[in-house]
């Protein structure tokens, strides 16, 4: 079910971005993957860490910074 929902989420994002692009509206989706927050214990963190090319697990502020960027005028050319 998770794969279906994720696929639908990104399909809707792509479709909607095309539909409203001519109006100057951008539509984007953020899928950060595992983020180091209160739910992640040391065992999970140690299991996941080798899978991240940057050598660290994303922090909540990384996601917040991306969302702020995508909502800003600096991202006016990024859609879909």
TrEMBL record:
Highest taxon above the source species: Bacteria
InterPro entries named in the record: NAD(P)-bd_dom_sf (IPR036291), SDR_fam (IPR002347)
Gene3D superfamilies named among the record's database cross-references: NAD(P)-binding Rossmann-like Domain
Oxidoreductase listed as a keyword: yes
GO BP terms in the entry: fatty acid biosynthetic process
GO molecular function ontology, one term from the record: oxidoreductase activity, acting on the CH-OH group of donors, NAD or NADP as acceptor
Annotated keywords: Oxidoreductase
Pfam families: adh_short_C2 (PF13561)
Recorded family membership: Belongs to the short-chain dehydrogenases/reductases (SDR) family.
Protein name: 3-oxoacyl-[acyl-carrier protein] reductase
Organism: Cytobacillus oceanisediminis
High-level lineage: Bacteria, Bacillati, Bacillota, Bacilli, Bacillales
């Amino acid at each position: 079910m998770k794969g279906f929902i994720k696929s639908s989420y990104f399909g809707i994002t792509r479709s909607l971005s095309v539909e409203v692009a001519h109006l100057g509206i951008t539509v984007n989706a953020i899928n950060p993957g595992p983020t180091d927050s209160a739910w992640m214990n040391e065992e999970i963190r140690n299991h996941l860490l080798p899978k991240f090319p940057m050598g660290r697990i994303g922090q909540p502020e990384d996601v917040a910074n991306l969302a702020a960027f995508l909502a800003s005028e600096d991202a006016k050319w990024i859609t879909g």
